[in-house]
Automatic annotation (TrEMBL):
Database matches in InterPro entries: ArgJ-like_dom_sf (IPR016117), Peptidase_S58_DmpA (IPR005321)
Species name: Paraburkholderia phymatum (strain DSM 17167 / CIP 108236 / LMG 21445 / STM815) (Burkholderia phymatum)
Superkingdom of source: Bacteria
Name of the protein this chain belongs to: Peptidase S58 DmpA
PANTHER family in the cross-refs: BLR5678 PROTEIN, D-AMINOPEPTIDASE
GO MF, any single term: aminopeptidase activity
Family per similarity comment: Belongs to the peptidase S58 family.
């Protein structure tokens, strides 16, 4: 990560870690494959440390643009809960990761798929085929297991895990994360975001309201003629007591943060946001479910604000944290800092 301080998006304060792990109980782990033409990996987000099948968390997703091959969204939409950790990988790795999630669930609960219902694996993807030899099908179940085992509140961002081969605004993208703390009534509540950023054309890049991509594109003589064909997965966590309907509303606000960075949700872009709450869990086999008092819909605006800001900040964090990577056929994506050595001057210039 660069020594240059990252701009703080908006006026809301961040949590102590400044990541999705500021939502108590949430952990993140990576498994990175860095092997010549193969530049890819797996990232796992755990809502809590308990068995996710036995203690499901409420969740919902918004498909902003559906050019993607994710697994598990249909059941999340129908039932409003997560049954596995959330996994991120490349487009051709989703089947291997889903199988690993199924194996983990059946190993912990042999009744799954027999006396009990089947488990719903949840895997999101972006296409890292510019840097990664995606046809090598390098992602295996062991990479999911390694990412799961390494999950912790303190985790790396940038060119790691699922973000290893990702590109963002024609620069190196990857994993980014952020958090915001808001007051609802008399309670301090946290919203955290983690993104797998793999979208955008350079002329569109906007950082904290500053369209610096225009100048960078002029330097490279780049244009917007090539369509946006990337994707982004946005995972939003909160400790606010919300139900699945409210979480769907929260997830939609991730689109506001995405748009601020310059995305137009292009035809070939897979832009998906999922939100979950750690405030309560749904026991697997109880007849009745006890829910805490939920935040009133009329009091959701601070959480919407926090979601938009944390997603925007997480995208900037992905760019800020990434390192330059060379992969398939000598394709290279420069990090923001390698591509723009005078970034500090540009940012200051835009604020004066």
């Amino acid at each position: 990560m660069s020594a240059l301080p990252m701009p703080h998006i908006g006026v809301l304060p961040a949590g102590a870690l400044g990541t999705i792990a500021d939502v108590a109980g949430v952990t993140v782990g990576h498994s990175t494959i860095d092997n010549g033409a193969v530049q890819t990996g797996v990232t796992v987000i755990r809502p809590h440390r308990d068995d996710p099948y036995l203690r499901k968390v409420p969740a919902a997703a918004s498909v902003i643009n559906g050019f993607g091959k994710s697994i598990g969204l249909v059941q999340v939409e129908e039932l409003g809960v997560l049954e596995t950790p959330i996994a991120l990988t490349n487009t051709f790795g989703i089947a291997a990761v889903a199988q690993a999630q199924i194996r983990a669930a059946t190993a912990s609960n042999p009744q799954v798929g027999r006396e009990w219902p089947t488990v719903n694996p949840l895997v999101f993807e972006c296409n890292d085929g510019y840097l990664n030899d995606i046809q090598a099908l390098a992602v295996e179940g062991k990479h999911y297991e390694a990412a799961l085992d390494s999950s912790a509140p303190d985790f790396k961002r940038g060119s790691v895990g699922a973000g290893r081969g990702m590109s963002c605004f024609d620069l190196k993208g990857g994993i980014g994360s952020a958090s915001r703390v808001v007051k609802v009534a008399s309670s301090d509540l946290t919203v955290g975001a983690l993104v797998l950023a793999n979208f955008g054309r350079l002329p569109m890049l906007t950082i904290d309201g500053m369209p610096i991509g225009r100048e960078l594109a002029q330097r490279r003589r780049a244009t917007e003629a090539k369509p946006e064909q990337g994707s982004i997965i946005m995972i939003v966590a909160t400790d606010a007591p919300l139900d699945a309907r409210q979480l769907k509303r929260l997830s939609m606000r991730a689109a506001a943060g995405l748009a601020r960075t310059g995305s137009v949700y292009g035809h070939g872009s897979g832009d998906i946001a999922l939100a979950f709450s750690t405030a309560w869990t749904v026991p697997h086999d109880d007849d009745f479910i006890a829910t805490p008092p939920l935040v009133s819909d009329a009091r959701l605006d601070p959480l919407f604000h926090a979601c938009a800001d944390s997603v925007e900040q997480a995208i900037v964090d992905a760019l800020w944290s990434a390192a330059t990577v060379t992969g398939r056929d000598a394709h290279t994506r420069l990090s923001l800092h390698d591509a723009v050595p005078d970034l500090e001057r540009l940012l200051k210039q835009r604020t004066t």
